[in-house]
Protein 1
Amino acid sequence: MATADRKEREKEQRKNAIIDAAEKLFFSRSFDSVPMEEIAKEVELGKGTLYLYFKNKDALFFAITLRKMRKMHEILVECIELEISGREKHRLIGKKYFEFVQENQEYYRMICAIGPKLFRKKENEDMKAVMEQIKEDLLLNRDVLKEGMEDGTIRNDIDPFEMAFIMNLMCNSIICLDPNWKKILEIGGISYDQFVKDFLLFIGNALDNRPVSDEMGLGNSAR
């Protein structure tokens, strides 16, 4: 039994070493320019051995993606477990998410460059695992929004799942913002970092639970 456990650990270590090597090469160059042979050489494996772990580069892309997503998932869970309001949890999640993006810029550059093409390919088991993680995190975000609705800190006139879905789409669009749009922002004197901060402020104000009179700009005059 001990031998079987040791072999399983060694297999997992080798698999992680392959992912590390692929990540290093994809980030330093580009996904399309790195052949499987070079990844095998980086980890001192034969090409045939490499294919025992990953059948192609697409599988490696999804393995890298899933590993990063699971790290972000851990951060998400830490925020959810705090004894604060639903609104504060959601505010913290947004802050931590964009901090994670900033700390993993090479990864997100790869995601924005090659992700759309790979996700359009015929569905496979590797992509299914990533999609399941996306679904799980989306449901967790929904639950945070629902919690805020129940404790009165988040508006309750929109379905929480729909709200979570909308914000997920918006965040993905901002992360993969076309460089030409960034240049247009700069023409207006707004840096990308400032744009992200303002987005979080904007979306936060949109989520806050406020009386209808305040949302209409009526204030005390409606009384």
Protein 2
Amino acid sequence: MSKRQSAKYKLDRRMGENIWGRPKSSVNRRSYGPGQHGQRRKGKLSDYGIQLRAKQKLKGYYGDVTEKQFKRTYQEASSMKGDTSQNLIGLLEQRLDMVVYRAKFAPTIFSARQIVSHGHIRVNGVKCNIASRRVKVGDIITLGNKAKEMALVLEAQNLPEREVPDYVAQDGTDKVTFVRVPTLDEVPYPVKMEPNLVVEFYSR
């Protein structure tokens, strides 16, 4: 589970953006940063600061994955053919917890990770509890029988603020197929993500 479970919306306020697009995000009420110094006037960020902020925002959006995991994903993306920033987004979108979130099996990326780790998800009919597992094109992801009745899952399926993207094909309410690795333009981020700045950060 993420270390940020109890204070995930602090990231929204630190970034000054509603990065998950949730209506109850505290940034909708308080646009300044968290903590006693949150209302201080912010100075202009350096190039390094801008890159670091882009990395923190992207890393936070994917459930605040550990720095070790995130850097390893970047290194894998940079060793692949093609554009590194596009490769990075593709690899992050292939995480099992993210596919569960995209399928609207969970209301947040944090709850998606919890559902996976508690063994409620099947990949090609086999139970999987590893949230960071890489989903392949053609893989079928289904909800376990208990999960179909969970209040958390039913809440997620009725969320009006997001839709299931085209690269995750629905088959009813409890089954999806990962049909292709998306490009940056296809990923339904509520705010602008800049993976090119993340690449610059790590390649300094």
Protein 3
Amino acid sequence: MAFEQDLLELLPRLRRFARSLTRDISDADDLCQMALERALNKRDQWQTGTRLDSWMYRITRNIWIDTVRAAGRREHVANDDEAMENVAGDDHQRMESRMELNDVDRAMDRLPLEQREAISLVLVEGFAYKEAAALLDIPIGTLTSRLVRGREALQRELGEAA
């Protein structure tokens, strides 16, 4: 039962990661559901004492890659106004915050999937470089390069939006 409870606690982070991959809230929910189903079916493959979040991120990413390949497309992009419904502050602050989040969201949309994955894992989810590189099955140098290029692209995009 602890396994299932740990999965439930991980769900908000997993959903956020899925959202960064799919760029669509409905697709992210579907991706999370598939990942949870696969994890429950392959529970015996998870090693107690290892990081469940890393295992789940890898499952989620692999399902997404399979889905994209099967559909014959590189990535799916969509807007998500619903995710910004709960921005705090008065109406003026809420509108400014929403516009800034929309700018960031659009800038993230323009990044290649590889850079978006790296930024999502390291800057949003807080994984160490070594962990993120292992999760993506790439060398740390490649991860660092993707982060640098992604950050630069975001800064350019957000600088133009200001």
